[in-house]
Fold this sequence. Notes:
This protein is an alpha+beta fold and 149 residues long. The protein has a domain at 88-148: CATH 2.40.50.140. It is 20% helix and 27% strand. The protein has one helix and seven strands; from the N terminus they run αβββββββ. Strands 3-4-5-7-6 form a five-stranded mixed beta barrel. Strand 6 and strand 7 (141-148) form a beta hairpin. The protein is elongated. The N and C termini lie far apart (97 Å).
Amino acid sequence: MAKSQQTFNKLEKEKKRLKKREDKIKKKNARKAEAAENPQGIQFAYVDFNGNLVDTPPDPEDKVEYEAENIVLGVPKKEDLPEPDPIRKGKVSFYDPSKGFGFIIDAEDSEKYFCHVSGLIDEIIENDKVQFELEKGMKGLNAVRVKKI
């Protein structure tokens, strides 16, 4: 005789599926009954001035008027932005004269920048205070025109 293909696991999955369907139908009927008892229609949610959802409309007296000419759309123009100082100050964290490169830590933002011997004006060693300019290199910003302070 052939064995039944209906296993215990399949039976349990089918029971769960039927139970889920019954729960869904019960919730649907409960929502319909609640809508019939309380026929207010769609509930509204308002946003207050702090960005929170509330059930009362905002007070029109608190409304702020803006001039259309004062609204700036887009990115600010380049001439509007202040020009950053090209000369930066920092400290030499590592320098190997035999290999001809090192790293400088910027005093303002503590970023580490690569420095090559070709970008040096004065001879430097580790822990020297220096001033330098930044230039775009192949792998990021490089310190160039490095001078001891």
